[in-house]
Design goal:
By secondary structure, this protein is α+β, with helices and mostly antiparallel strands. The strands form two sheets. A seven-stranded mixed beta sheet has the order 2-1-5-4-3-8-9. The radius of gyration is 22 Å and the shape is globular. α3 packs across α6. It has six helices and nine strands. β3, α3 and β4 form a beta-alpha-beta unit. InterPro entries: SCO1/SenC, Thioredoxin-like_sf. One of its GO terms (molecular function) is metal ion binding. It comes from Maritimibacter fusiformis. Pfam families: SCO1-SenC.
Length: 207
């Protein structure tokens, strides 16, 4: 008679192999898997959420009012000396490429400097960038809610000039699709072409 260990050892191997297959098995649960190029440690669902802000026409709007089409979302401020204009121009270029390919998309700019960025000021900025870029501002509390939802960071310079202060902030651009919410983020070194290509992939996968 074989020792009990000799009988159980192959069984153990089968059980372990089965467990490994279950954990590593391919799944079709993420319809956007082929489009993703970044990873969120806390999961994609942890980014994004409801907010209430004021648009460039002075109208109070919610996230549902804003995200009616594929959107490139950026948090910045109009007095930003370099980073925000460069990033917003890049986003506008990516939007042009998408629209040239027939995609109905838009860009959104949320100010993290509501003290100076009135709806009129935000409108001037976004109008210079792109006809389909929406500017949003609001009270500091409203902006904080939106910023926290998208895990962004901003901090007003404490010892700066009270009128010409700077605001330190994160610089990611987020891709948000209606009915899906946040799906991807783009770093500053991403090109307009790369952004357009990846965004198109997500839009197609959502159909």
């Amino acid at each position: 008679m074989k020792p009990i260990t000799a009988i159980l050892a192959p069984l153990g191997i089968v059980v372990i192999a089965g467990a490994a297959w279950w954990l590593l098995r391919p799944t079709d649960s993420d319809q956007f898997a082929a489009c993703r190029s970044t990873e969120i440690g806390t999961g994609v669902a942890s980014i994004g959420g409801p907010f209430t802000l004021v648009d460039e026409n002075g109208t109070t709007v919610t996230d549902a009012d804003v995200f009616t089409k594929p959107t490139l979302l950026y948090f910045g401020y109009t007095f930003c000396p370099d980073v925000c204009p460069l990033d917003s121009t890049r986003n506008a270029d990516a939007l042009d490429l998408l629209q040239d390919r027939g995609y109905d998309a838009q860009a959104v700019f949320i100010s993290i400097d509501p003290e100076r960025d009135t709806p009129e000021r935000v409108a001037e900025f976004t109008d210079l960038m792109h006809d389909d870029m929406i500017g949003l501002t609001g009270s500091l509390e409203q902006v904080k809610v939106a910023s926290q939802a998208y895990k962004t960071y901003f901090r007003k310079e404490e010892d700066g000039d009270p009128e010409y202060y700077l605001v330190d902030h994160s610089t990611f651009t987020y891709l948000v699709l209606p009915e899906h919410g946040f799906l991807e983020f783009f770093r500053r070194d991403e090109t307009p072409e790369g952004m357009a290509e990846k965004t198109a992939c997500f839009i197609d996968a959502a159909k």
